[in-house]
Amino acid sequence: MRYFRLIFGVVDRERMLYTMLYSLFFISLTSATLSVLDVRNFEFEGYSLSFAVGLLFFPLTFVISNFIQDRYDIRTANTVVFTALVADGALMLMLYITSSLGESQSSYAVYSPLIRVWSISFFSIIISCIFNNIIFKYVRKHFKRGFWGAFVSILTSSTMAEIILTCISLPLILSMSQNVSSLSSVMLLNLVYKFSFTGVASIIVAFIKTHIEYKRDFIENKKSLYVAEVSKQSIV
Questions:
Q1: Mean pLDDT, residues 12-40
Q2: Which is nearest to 169 in space by CA: 194, 151, 202?
Q3: What DSSP assignment string belongs to the chain?
Q4: pTM (2 decimals)?
Q5: Cys staple from 54: which of 12, 24, 35, 212, with CB 3.0 to 4.6 Å?
Q6: Best-predicted range by mean pLDDT among 42-51, 117-126, 142-151?
């Protein structure tokens, strides 16, 4: 840490945390937009199944959004989601323009559908985020503090938002792909995967959140005891 400060100077931990969360949100969102049409087909017990590998890290978006909403407020979380979506759309537009101006047909074939993918994702994510915020706020009222409060609220709201998003956007987006053997298997496998991923991520985030709350309460109690001791000595 000492060498880190020597190189980068004094670091504001709160700003660094917020920047890291925003960056991770944007990376997860953009990776899904760029590769959502990429599908992995395989056989299982004689059934043809498909998995949208582009959505491998997308479940992080709702978990991060809920963590930001819990740590800061709902306005900050909505700002992160909206600005990341706009930045993602700007990047897709730039890739489309550069690929259309170049002579590489393979690049144009990859980037030309991205504007439509982003448009579908934009409206789907906005709708699912509205439900995510409502569910998170409602559950959080009943589980205000502690590990289980953070875990249940993040898992419930993120899972419901993922179900809504998957049902709205995935059929529209994957209709553009020629590699899907079974749309129903894609939706089922992705929902199972997203639920599992969200569950693990919710445990990690809830643990971090509980640790932060415990550390904050410990510091506040220590300050209160110090102030009480000083007041007691001044009276004597």
A1: 86
A2: 194
A3: -HHHHHHH-S--HHHHHHHHHHHHHHHHHHHHHHHTT-EEEEEETTEEEEEEGGGSSTTHHHHHHHHHHHHS-HHHHHHHHHHHHHHHHHHHHHHHHHHHHSS-HHHHHHHTTHHHHHHHHHHHHHHHHHHHHHHHHHHHHHS-SHHHHHHHHHHHHHHHHHHHHHHHHHHHHHTT-S--S-HHHHHHHHHHHHHHHHHHHHHHHHHHHHHHHHHHHHHHHHHHHHHHHHHHHHH-
A4: 0.80
A5: 35
A6: 117-126
